[in-house]
């Protein structure tokens, strides 16, 4: 299977920022662990702090992949443009969050993306990504 992981703003700072919320592991190390565990599958990773670049990546991979795991960061709660991009592509998208957004500030309780996604996984730390990946692999 060909699965793409796309991370949005500030997720390049994992392991450095707000460790009490996001933990102390950086994403590249975690991604390498996923690649080593799932060697028979093609896993790619992209991160951007720019909304347009996230949309461009969704357009690029959204018609020739088996799945997309998307953590859009704060854009989850604000971006109709990313929601439209997800709705426009044929590849299923699972929205993920490291923290349990429903235990945080009220503005984080609303996802602009969820209605266009296959599902949402939140609150399991970096393991949220593995859970999404397992969903795609077990179809």
TrEMBL record:
<dbReference type="GO" id="GO:0009423">
    <property type="term" value="P:chorismate biosynthetic process"/>
</dbReference>
<feature type="binding site">
    <location>
        <position position="71"/>
    </location>
    <ligand>
        <name>substrate</name>
    </ligand>
</feature>
<feature type="binding site">
    <location>
        <position position="84"/>
    </location>
    <ligand>
        <name>substrate</name>
    </ligand>
</feature>
<feature type="active site" description="Proton donor">
    <location>
        <position position="97"/>
    </location>
</feature>
<dbReference type="GO" id="GO:0008652">
    <property type="term" value="P:amino acid biosynthetic process"/>
</dbReference>
<feature type="binding site">
    <location>
        <begin position="98"/>
        <end position="99"/>
    </location>
    <ligand>
        <name>substrate</name>
    </ligand>
</feature>
<keyword id="KW-0028">Amino-acid biosynthesis</keyword>
<keyword id="KW-0057">Aromatic amino acid biosynthesis</keyword>
<dbReference type="GO" id="GO:0003855">
    <property type="term" value="F:3-dehydroquinate dehydratase activity"/>
</dbReference>
<keyword id="KW-0456">Lyase</keyword>
<protein>
    <recommendedName>
        <fullName>3-dehydroquinate dehydratase</fullName>
        <ecNumber>4.2.1.10</ecNumber>
    </recommendedName>
</protein>
<comment type="pathway">
    <text>Metabolic intermediate biosynthesis; chorismate biosynthesis; chorismate from D-erythrose 4-phosphate and phosphoenolpyruvate: step 3/7.</text>
</comment>
<feature type="binding site">
    <location>
        <position position="108"/>
    </location>
    <ligand>
        <name>substrate</name>
    </ligand>
</feature>
<feature type="site" description="Transition state stabilizer">
    <location>
        <position position="17"/>
    </location>
</feature>
<dbReference type="InterPro" id="IPR001874">
    <property type="entry name" value="DHquinase_II"/>
</dbReference>
<comment type="similarity">
    <text>Belongs to the type-II 3-dehydroquinase family.</text>
</comment>
<dbReference type="GO" id="GO:0009073">
    <property type="term" value="P:aromatic amino acid family biosynthetic process"/>
</dbReference>
<dbReference type="InterPro" id="IPR036441">
    <property type="entry name" value="DHquinase_II_sf"/>
</dbReference>
<dbReference type="InterPro" id="IPR018509">
    <property type="entry name" value="DHquinase_II_CS"/>
</dbReference>
<comment type="subunit">
    <text>Homododecamer.</text>
</comment>
<dbReference type="Pfam" id="PF01220">
    <property type="entry name" value="DHquinase_II"/>
</dbReference>
<comment type="function">
    <text>Catalyzes a trans-dehydration via an enolate intermediate.</text>
</comment>
<dbReference type="GO" id="GO:0019631">
    <property type="term" value="P:quinate catabolic process"/>
</dbReference>
<feature type="active site" description="Proton acceptor">
    <location>
        <position position="22"/>
    </location>
</feature>
<feature type="binding site">
    <location>
        <position position="77"/>
    </location>
    <ligand>
        <name>substrate</name>
    </ligand>
</feature>
């Amino acid at each position: 299977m060909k699965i793409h992981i796309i991370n949005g703003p500030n997720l390049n700072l994992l392991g450095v920022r707000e460790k009490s919320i996001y933990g102390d592991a950086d994403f590249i190390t975690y991604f390498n662990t996923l690649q080593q565990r799932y060697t028979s599958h093609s896993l790619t990773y992209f991160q951007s702090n720019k909304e347009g670049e996230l949309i461009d990546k969704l357009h690029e991979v959204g018609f020739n992949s088996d799945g997309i795991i998307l953590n859009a960061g704060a854009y989850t709660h604000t971006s109709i443009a990313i929601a439209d991009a997800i709705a426009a592509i044929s590849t299923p998208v699972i929205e993920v969050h490291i923290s349990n957004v429903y235990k945080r500030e009220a503005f984080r309780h609303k996802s602009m993306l969820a209605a266009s996604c296959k599902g949402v996984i939140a609150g399991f730390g970096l393991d949220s990504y593995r859970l999404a990946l397992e969903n795609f692999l077990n179809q």
